[in-house]
Amino acid sequence: MLPIDKPFKSYASKLTILYVVISSISTLIIFYFLYVFSTAYMQQQLEDAVNAEVQGLAEHYDKEGIEGLERVILFRVERYGRADNTIYLLVNHNTTPIVGNILEWPSSAREKGKWIEFSLRSSLPGDDPYLAQAKIFKLPKPGDPERPYGLLVGKIVQPLVDIKQSIQAAIAWGIVVMILLSALGGTLLGRKAAKKVARINQTTTSIMSGNMSERVPLSHEADDLDQVAANLNVMLDRIETLMEDIRRVSDNIAHDLRTPLSRLRYQLEESMKKSDPDSEVAESLEQSIQEADSLLATFNALLRIAKIEAGQVDAGFCEIELSGLIEDIVDFYKPLIEEKQQILEISLEPGLKAHGDRHLLFQAFANILENAIKYTPEQGRISISLEVSNDRVTVIIADNGPGIPESEKEGIFVRFHRLDQSRNSPGSGLGLSMTKAIINLHKGSIEPEDNEPGMRMVVQIPIQATQNVLSQ
Predict the structure, then answer these.
(1) Least crowded by CB within 10 Å, which of 27, 220, 243, 327?
(2) Which of 33-37, 121-125, 129-133: highest mean pLDDT?
(3) How far apart are CA 324 and CA 352, in angstroms?
(4) Do the domains 317-462 and 11-166 match in fold?
(5) Cα–Cα distance between 152 and 221 in angstroms, integer?
(6) Rounded mean pLDDT of the chain?
(7) Does 152 have pLDDT greater than 80?
(8) Could you tell me which residues come within 8 angstroms of residue 367 by beta carbon, excluding any fewer than 6 positions away?
(9) Angle, nearest 10°, between helix axes 158-208 and 11-80?
């Protein structure tokens, strides 16, 4: 199982981020169109009002001339003032004001399409200028078309600007609130999905530890994850049935072949006793007995590996001192090391303890050390180190032998896998397979590394490995 060492790699985090992004983008799009349509509507209302004013003033000018237009503008200015935010200014050909509610013709106006935009000074000291928009029309002067009148009609749009700013602020706060609510909703949805994923992970972890009867619990929601869990349970049922069939076949093979092999070995021993010890027949019988022993050992090792991988071992998990365990292994192989005149370097941190099965760990580390002794040349160098880091104990067994090619490292833990240069040497290719099964049983890891020259086997075991083993 791959560990999730970064928070944003988890399914719940990705779901939350996706939920926040989609909700935020959707809200932003909605607010954008709401802002565009509302401001466009207000602008259109302003234009319609000004156009209506202009049309009315034009009718008065056509009927009553400039005097009638002055009376109408003066009437509207005196009656309404700026209560409806409408501004009027009638000027002669040199922009001298005739009548209106603003004092002068805007000289610093900015063109905005068919409109001009300018600022009006407030009559009250300290007030900010008003922003206004207006349209300009030229009215032909009877008898003097070269010097037309100028008419300016518009609206004070400062309230419209204030409304736009209020809408923008509301949109900004709405986006912030939506992001927070989306994050909260995404977190709740992510946690809900993560709980279901965690139940699946817990079940698969328990199954990998050997408890093949575990099944993923189902909720009453009958959603997609429940469907996945249901299919997974069906698959586990099928796998458990197949494994039980394999175990039954293995047991039958054990009963059917172990006895004939043992009987064959006994008959070979009896024949050897009756033969001349110095004859060629006795030598052939002795070789046959050795081959029978090798077959029995290989067969027993296969059954042992299968039981360890399935968690079907009588594992005596308890607190053990690893430094003492390594020293016992070294003492056991010391005669073989001295026979090959190899140099052994030991660096053990005393008092290191871990939770595990002493017999199984002895066999695992013994297999690694035996391989190091076997493939390290005479007068070669072998080192064993034991150290602790955080909550894991690390055991490193290194040598300066021929090493293992990079392409072969993944296959050394496969049953019966042997390198080309070691095919003619004694062994069945099951030692590292058993070691891998034992380390996995202790929830540890084993990795082959280059020692330049030679190789290093790095084994890590949790200090407090949780016991989750089935008794045979």
Answers:
(1) 220
(2) 33-37
(3) 9
(4) no
(5) 70
(6) 77
(7) yes
(8) 431, 432, 434, 435
(9) 170
Distances (CA, A) of 225 to 139, 228, 231, 237, 409: 77, 5, 10, 18, 37
Q: Which amino acid is at 102?
A: I
Q: Is the pLDDT of residue 3 over 50?
A: no
Beta bridge partners of 110: 117
Domain spans, the chain? 11-166, 224-309, 317-462
Per-residue pLDDT band for 175 (boundaries 50, 70, 90) equals confident
Nearest to 90 by CA among 80, 75, 100, 81: 100
Question: What integer pLDDT is reported at residue 26 of this predicted model?
Answer: 85
Q: Which tokens sit at 176? A: 């912030």
φ/ψ (deg, to 5) at 153: -130, 130
Is there a cis peptide before residue 129, judged by omega within 30 degrees of 0? no
Whole-structure pTM over 0.90, yes or no?
A: no
**pLDDT at residue 197 is higher than 70:** yes
Regarding the domain delimited by 317-462, which CATH topology (the fold level of the hierarchy) does it fall under? Heat Shock Protein 90 (3.30.565)
Tokens at residue 464, please?
Answer: 């407090």
Residue 306 corresponds to which amino acid? A
Q: 20: which residues sit within 8 A by CB, 6+ positions away?
A: 179, 182, 183, 186
Helix (H, G, I), strand (E, B) or coil at 470: strand
**Whose structure tokens read 């049309």?**
55
pLDDT given at position 453: 83
Q: State residue 400's pLDDT score.
A: 87
pLDDT tens for each residue of 323-355:
888 888 889 888 888 888 888 888 887 777 777
Choosing among 3.30.1240, 2.60.40, 3.30.450, 3.90.1570, the CATH entry for 11-166 is 3.30.450
DSSP string, 393-416: EEEEEEE-SS---GGGGGGTTSTT
Angle at 111 between CA 59 and CA 124, to 5 degrees: 80
The top-level CATH class assigned to 224-309 is mainly alpha
Give dist(CA 357, CA 319) in Å, integer. 8
Give whole-number Cα distances, 354 to 281, 328, 366, 392, 469, in Å: 52, 16, 17, 9, 16
Average pLDDT over residues 239-247: 75
Cα 125 to chain centroid distance, Å, stands at 62
Taking Cα atoms as reference points, which of 355, 359, 337 lies closest to residue 346? 337
Output helix, strand, coil percentages for the chain, rounded to the nearest 5: 55, 20, 25
